[in-house]
Amino acid sequence: MKLHLKKHWRIWLLTLFVLASTVAIFAPMGDADDPEAEQLDEQSLAMQYTNLQFGLELSGGTQVRAPLVGMTAEGLEFEPAEESDIERTIQDELGVSSADVRADAERGTVELFTDSHVGNVTQDDFAAALAEAGHETNPRMGVTGETRDGVEDVLQTRLDETGLSGGQATQVAAPGQQFMLVEVPGANRSEVIQLIGERGQVEVVALHPDPEEDGEYRYEVLLDDEDFTPGAAGQDEQGRYYVPVNVHPDAAEEFQRYMQDHGFAEDGGTFCDYDMNMSVDENVAEMENDRCLMTVLDGEVVFAARINPNLAQSFQSGNWVENPTYRSMTGSLEEARTLEIHMREGALRTTLDIDNRGTSFFLQPSLAAQFKPLSLLTGAIAVGAVAFMVFLRYRKPEVSGPMLLTAGAEVYILLGFAAAVGLPLDLSHIAGFIAVIGTGIDDLVIIADEIMQQGEVRTSRVFESRFRKAFWVIGAAAATTIIAMSPLAILSLGDLRGFAIVTIVGVLIGVLITRPAYGDILRILVLEDGGK
Q1: Domains 61-66+146-198+351-363 and 71-142 alike in fold
Q2: What gap in Å lies between CA 201 and CA 348, rounded to an integer?
Q3: What secondary structure letter does DSSP report for 267?
Q4: I need a labelling partner for 160 at 20 to 30 A (CA). Which of 197, 216, 419, 427 fits?
Q5: Is the predicted pLDDT of residue 44 greater than 50, yes or no?
Q6: Angle between helical axes of 515-526 and 397-421 (0-180°, round to 10)
Q7: What is the per-residue pLDDT across 70-96, written as a single tens digit (0 to 9) for each?
Q8: Pairing outcome for strands 101-104 and 109-112
């Protein structure tokens, strides 16, 4: 029988979504000629034939769970103009850097990004420093929700920028404490710790003779990571790797003025003999009128070089501000890309306390690979059991067959959704798929029973009445499921969140696409005239 587009649009809509899911799952994505993809790990090989991504439990990898380092004083009242004074007082009292203190007048909070677990600062020390700043309060352990959200965003961006497929950074709740959970399929522990363990505080520093102290050197921070934007890592004509640094216009003029005032704009450039294997003090002890421009990452000098004659001339003439750019050189392309990521995505406001209060584990890819066929077998058993029970109930292939095909299409569309949004599939998601199979068949049974168990269906009007009645029951059940699962999907509850998300999306696909399509299919099969 012909399927008229207008009359049977629900079936055509189901067909359209099945085709779209096929494209999402199997269509090639990305650049196959990308030179960075010369070596494929197991995760990449698994994705050669599909665009499905697998999480830690199905592909192996590393999971790190740790709280953020810091303490917070809340409920304070002060003006925005007082923020810098409060921060400076706490820095002086506790001997910490400017990056370790943050006062926020709008939220009435002061955060200290160190604590007794990673340093020598206790809650009492912090309270005493706050008292010196004019605020008597008892700080708590932990950081604010804004800081956690910012750390989560930066970590996720780092994972995305490095091309680690399926890497996720999320917040998880525990009694009295919040944790950051980082899962990276296909990566070992050292790779993950190196990526997420560094704070990523990047500064541009000038090292030069101190004009006020004869024989002494000045270490002056000129730019922080809010004052510049890096370009893409590249390679120059001599084969050296570098990251171009574009200084923002509002900071460029002051930067150029400093270069002019402290000898960096002299004819012929400057001289810099800096040994990266030595500390700053050790280098200074051997310097004679050196002037170096350095890139400092988390307090460690990662780049130090002289000012070449061309750059010095542009400083001297004042033309540099028209195109405020220079290059930070590195020893390898990998180092250049790592530096680019830290400079591009900004610094973590605070670090994860992995060593003292965190946990981590590495799952061997060979072990994780065993879960894939077992998950497939579990799904096949579930489908087989459902198919057997459906056939026993109706004894009519024309009813049970379309029912199973419709339920299968629902799961297939859900897989397409996972591929389209890049959802890394884990065991919790597989459990959600199995739950969707059960609820889907249950709803289709309700439709079939309502239509076929109340006497013969002779007209389209009778069919519509019975189908509408069944659909109200299904809609109410779907709404109940979505409401019940919503807290699990919103709250940071680990694997339960993945299960809830898959279940909710599966229910929505069923109510909006597959259940109406099954109704049209059943109409064609039940009514002799095809539903006229």
Answers
A1: yes
A2: 7
A3: T
A4: 427
A5: no
A6: 160
A7: 999 999 999 988 888 898 899 889 988
A8: antiparallel
Q: Return d(Cα 12, Cα 6) in angstroms, integer.
A: 9
Q: Hey, what amino acid is at 400?
A: S
Q: How far apart are CA 94 and CA 394, in angstroms?
A: 77
Neighbours of 234 (CB within 10 A): 14
Q: Quick check: 126 and 72 in contact, CB under 8 A?
A: no
Q: Which residue has the tokens 């709008």?
A: 106
In angstroms, rounded to a whole number, what is the distance separating the alpha carbons of residues 305 and 242? Answer: 12
Q: Which of 20-34, 264-278, 312-326, 515-529 has the lowest mean pLDDT?
A: 20-34
Strand 101-104 relative to strand 168-174: parallel, antiparallel, unpaired?
unpaired
Largest pairwise CA distance in the chain: 105
The CATH number fitting domain 202-345, selected from 1.10.20, 3.30.1360, 3.30.2430, 3.30.980:
3.30.1360
What top-level class would CATH report for the domain 71-142? alpha beta
Task: Evaluate if pTM is beyond 0.70.
Answer: no
How confident is the model over 346-398, as pLDDT tens digits?
Answer: 678 888 988 888 888 888 888 877 888 888 888 788 878 877 887 787 777 77
User: Cα–Cα distance between 426 and 504 in angstroms, integer?
Assistant: 16
**Is pLDDT above 60 for 480?**
yes
Sketch the domain layout of the chain as residue ranges: 9-26+42-58+366-526, 61-66+146-198+351-363, 71-142, 202-345
Task: Count other C-beta atoms under 10 Å from residue 487's C-beta.
Answer: 12
Check if the beta carbon of residue 470 is closer than 8 Å to that of residue 518. Answer: no
Whats the size of the chain, residue-wise? 532
Q: How confident is the model at residue 38 (pLDDT cuts 50, 70, 90)?
A: very low
Contact 220, 212 (CB under 8 A): no
pLDDT at 331 (0 to 100) = 75
What kind of architecture, by CATH, is found in domain 9-26+42-58+366-526?
A: Up-down Bundle (1.20)
pLDDT tens-digit map of 227-253: 888 888 888 888 888 888 889 888 899
CATH architecture of the domain formed by 61-66+146-198+351-363: 2-Layer Sandwich (3.30)
Residue with tokens 């070089």: 305
Rounded CA-CA distance 150/482 in Å is 29
The residue ranges of DSSP E strands in 403-453, in sequence order, are: 424-425
Output the six-digit token pair for 21.
Answer: 């899911």
